[in-house]
Amino acid sequence: MSKLIGYDHTYSTTYHPQSNGMIERFNATFVPQIAKLQDKENNNRDEFLSPVVFAYNTGTHSTTQYSSFQLLYGREPRLPTDGKLSSFTFRKPSDYYAQLKKSMTLIHGYARENIIQKQQQYKVQYDKLRPDPHYAINDRVLIRRHGLQNKLE
Q: How many domains, the chain?
């Protein structure tokens, strides 16, 4: 399924959390939620894992304006309070795949537009507080050299 929707699985090195930024961001949200709910005496955090993950996955993200569930599955989650399920059926699996692909393309396109718009808003806000550097000719400046260097350089 991951190849059909164009998803590439990547690995990160151990003990290098910077390379796994999205997971670290999720953990920054997830751990305090579990800590609020668990009973410290009984250490019952495992009882709250599924509800907290479900709440996170079905919550609308402020940047994309979509839930993680909707971005992954191309539809809203079915909740117990939703009542009767839809009776819509597909004649062939390829019909379902075509509809799913169309839905995912639309959702991802709108989410991408929302992300770009939010990034522009963040940039405007950041630029308000950051003064432009003023350099004159012959000013001394430090230059950072990127790339691999030898041990003795």
A: 1
